Amino acid sequence: MTTPAIDARTAHAAGVERLLASYRAVPPAASVRLAKPTSNLFRSRTKPDAPGLDTSGLTGVIAVDPEAQTADVAGMCTYADLVAATLPHGLAPLVVPQLKTITLGGAVTGLGIESTSFRNGLPHESVLELDILAGTGEVVTASPTEHDDLYRAFPNSYGTLGYAVRLRIELEPVEPFVEIRHVRFHSLPDLVAAMGRIVATGEFDGHRVDYLDGVVFSATESYLCLGTQTAAPGPVSDYTGQKIYYRSIQHDDGTTVDRLTIHDYLWRWDTDWFWCSEAFGAQRPLVRRLWPKTLRRSSFYGKLMRYEQRFHIGDRLERLRNRPPRERVVQDVEIPIERCAEFLGWFLDTVPIEPIWLCPLRLRDDGDWPLYPLRPRQTYVNVGFWSTVPVGSIEGATNRLIEAAVSELDGHKSLYSDSYYSPERFDELYGGDAYRSVKNRYDPDSRLLDLYAKAVQRR
Q: Distance (Å, rounded) from C-alpha 428 to C-alpha 52?
């Protein structure tokens, strides 16, 4: 590895030692957890019964190898820090999740996705090897040829099989700019059909497509956002100030063209947390002018949201207005593309949430990832929706309804937010037998939480 200097490896080794020391300090009867300053999970959890593991020395980029097009990265390194280290070499991770504070370890153990996923799959598929602190207290190196059972089961295990200490990932060349074509559709079946053709051919109307996602505002207003890398100089837009990226997508008909630097393209959704900054008033012109630019970012909005959850501010405001409390519906689901228009139609008729984010994905190879078993050679569409709805007759009524619809359409639901599955159904959907086999080998004393307990029982 050519950069950075050797002291980054020394610092990482010291960080691993602090991690192990903090692991040994956790009482045997207590659950082992990480001490994290930020989180991109959206489910409530019980209060830890012991101090979290010290990850303070595991936040950096260890080395970038421009010739091999790989990077060694600490498990708690954010994608923002990784991208800052790779872009000067004209390189980027194969998939860069949308929010700056998402960590490499988090994106692999908890899944991640972005607009390159239609050609590059999911972040864990570009991991060449990784060091994992297992429940035994040992650091295990896992790869397709070494401890391959742990390597395959780690994605979607959410830290219940261990924590990523170091990852070696593939990088790909990128150009300095991205030209974005926003294509308007008046019919959801037309949009989904066009998306399928782009995934199959890698182009649209004769233009190469390097990045592909979309936004649904209603059944008659939806867009595909088609990005093409380019080295051609020229003016670029800036959506970190008064202008709001998702509003720039909207137009009456046809196609509009925009340009961003590659850096700003990768973080185009972070400034307004997609569109969720609206809940805090940050999109109102006067508020936006007064809102410090440094606090226009997903991590700050997430902090506000956690305060809201802790003190139930939203429910209190609803009571003052003589309205019932609201149910949080913050979910990402994968739907086979053949059923995507059907799901979107059902969702818009049933759940009062918009806009909706769309991101197609296709696994890179036939590899087996048992805890999130997407079918090889099958195109899925990630459908993301993040808001609240009026409460129903039972806890999580709308979330339960969505879970049933996703299963009926042969889809899958991410586990970063609230889930309501029975233990039996959870086992069927998330590789229960494979999970238990790996859990028994690498965490025989159950020092780490169980996946069902963490994802559904909110432990």
A: 31
Sign of CA dihedral 164, 170, 173, 179: negative
The C-alpha angle 96, 191, 255, rounded to 5 degrees, equals: 80
Instruction: Look at the block and give the residue holding tokens 């991205």.
Output: 178
Q: What separation, in Å, do the N-terminal and C-terminal C-alpha atoms of the chain show?
A: 40
CB 178 within 8 A of CB 227: yes
d(CA 199, CA 212): 9
Q: Tell me: the pLDDT tens digits for 212-268?
A: 999 999 999 999 999 999 999 999 999 999 999 999 999 999 999 999 999 999 999
CA distance 56 to 255: 46
The helix/strand/coil state of 156 is coil
Other C-beta atoms within 10 Å of 246: how many? 20
Strands 207-208 and 127-133, by their bridges, are unpaired
Helices (H) and strands (E) in the chain — how many of each?
Answer: 16, 16
Pair type for strands 163-173 and 412-413: unpaired
pLDDT tens sequence across 297-319: 999 988 888 887 777 777 776 67
Neighbour tally for 141: CB within 10 Å: 15
